[in-house]
Each structure stands twice: as C-alpha cells, then as structure tokens.
C-alpha cells in the first residue's frame, strides 16, 4: 500500500507551521508507532486514535501502523494532531479517500467515543495554515465560529471522527451524535468603563487623556483610595478601536491562552492587571513544554496595569525591559524560540 498523507498545524508562539502527517499500514505484528518529535500528550494519540476509530464504527485493522510527523526537527505538542493522525490512518487502511485528505488541513482532539473536542489556539492555527496556502481546514464543531473569522478559507466543521470519514468519502452510514460544546466566552472580560464616570481629579483625568492621545506610559503616585486603579481601568475606554490586523492579533492571543473567542474579533483594546505576586513567566510568558503568552502579551495593543508596583519582585519587573524596547517578547528554550507581540501602554501605580 502507498503512504497516506494529510496536514496539521504546529504552533510556536503565534506562528503556525504546516506539518505533514504520513501513515503507512504494513504487515507485521499489530502496533502503532508515532515518530517525528512528538511530546508526551501527542504520544498518547496512539491510544486515543485506536479507541476513537473503534467506537466510531470504523476500526483500524490489526496491522502495523507507522505515523510520521514531518518535518521531524519541528517541535510538536498538544492533542490537536489527533484528527489528522486518525484520518491518515483510515486512509492508509483504504477506509477513506487518500486524495481527499491530502487537500485538507485537520485540527482537533479526539475523545475515546470518537467525538471531536475543541482545542485552544484554533484561530492562530487556521491563520497560519491560510498564510501557508491551505484552502480547506477541518475543525471540531465547537471551534467552527472561531475558525471562520479567518477570511478566504473554507472551514469544514465536524462533530465526530465518523462524520469526518464520511466527508472524505468513507462508506459509513451517518449517525446522529451530540457535538461537544465549548463554553461561549464573553466578548470581553469586563464591560468597558467610562472616563466620564470619574468625578473630580481633573489633573489626573487630563493626564490620562494625554497618555491615551500620545501612547505614553503613565506613573501614578498617591495615597490609597486616591483613585489610581479606578483611573487606570478607564484608560482602555478612551482608546480607539483596533484595526483588523490588531484585532486578529489580540483575538489570536486570547485563543492561544484558552480564553476563547466569540463569534467576532475583539475590537476593543485589552486590559491586563496581574497581581504583584505573579512570576516572570506569568508576566511575560513561558512554560517548559508548551510556551504560553503572559500578561504583557495579552495586553498587547492595550493597557498593562501594575498596581502596587513596588511589591513586584525586581527580577519580574526587569523582564519588561525587552517588550518595552522592542514591543515583542522572545522566549528561548533548548528546542525552540517563541515570539509574542507585546506592544502595550504601561500604567504603574
């Protein structure tokens, strides 16, 4: 049998790179070999794929299955490769059309019952695939609204592996299945506060308007109860709406951090206020295997407010030097380098 091929997306920071998934079914002792630098969670896809295929009514034959993720030098993590591995395995077993799966990028996590679970980071993944030239992307039904925010790409939403196999030409009877839903997030974490609600403090209000007009950073000094936090929280309310490119950036960061995106792009500048006990990784991003954005990146195109700044650890505050100078956070690991945008207005009190 020839090798079956399809594609998925590997995210490193906000950058998505296409990964080719190759599956080969050969004679020998039954087994499932996954190669190509997978991490621990991706390595567990072997058991998820076999159980999901069996419980979906399209079991894999008891033969030796080898799945390769290429390029092997690119780090791969997470469970979003499950759907691509499963359809490639089904194509290697001649259960679905090989040419059909080659034209489609697959993203999604499989449950043991064969249903597809939503994954984080679907917006930057679809955006990366579109920039790489992909025209059709298959995603879980719960991620369809978020994926459809990327223009000029055909989004195919499926609730289960069986439905994905049928879409690719598999000879299976359709069966109704309840799609796994994702909790619908609010369009913003909190309602936009109005500067007009502030009574008094004319000098502070004027300073806030000047900072918003010129994109200046702001230091507020005063006794407790003077209204520093109240004023800082109202700074995003007098900033202009985000343009399309900034909206995609802010929404992609929300998606990657697990906050989710509603049915429309974020159009208002974000506001982040980390606690003074936060770590350097919480402020600028980090992680051992999966690198996630921190508060500085989540505040990109908006406001980062550090209340009680003297209480922050000096080493944590020093981490802001690079993003303040370059507008970007660069996180180095032994196998990869991730970059996140971090162009924010800093408000310190």
Automatic annotation (TrEMBL):
GO terms for molecular function: ATP binding. Coiled coil: none annotated. It comes from the Bacteria. Residues 214-344 form the AAA+ ATPase domain. PANTHER family: COMPETENCE PROTEIN COMM (PTHR32039:SF7), MAGNESIUM-CHELATASE SUBUNIT CHLI (PTHR32039). This is Mg chelatase-like protein.
